[in-house]
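S2.1 Query sequence (Early nodulin-like protein 22)
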Amino acid sequence: MLFFMIFELQYEAIHSYTPVHYMVGDEDGWDPVISMQGWAQGKHFHAGDVLEFKYDDAFDVSIVDKAGYDDCFVSDTSIQFSDGDDNITLAFGANYFISSLPTNICAGGMKMAINATAPPPSV
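Output structure tokens follow.
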């Protein structure tokens, strides 16, 4: 019986969290005019939160691994978006995003690393 009570409490804590919707870059969007990593600083991201990337057709957004983030490259396992208004749900743990267009824009700072923690327990 105790096992089921603990399981139920954990289930409710995980499933009662309402994800937060973030507009990446606020009014500037996904754009090199601001520091993307600076925009993310001070925010507390959780698995399940949604990042909305708004950008013009000169850019894109790609979900990459750590190596892709560090070296600014898109591999076969990367997921690329180019719609200009993309909603991406954060996975638990490290999430890496880069712009692969135009060439070298990522190296100039158009990239962002976010660590999404577990959703907070309900109160």
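The chain has a mean pLDDT of 89. The two ends are 23 Å apart (CA to CA).
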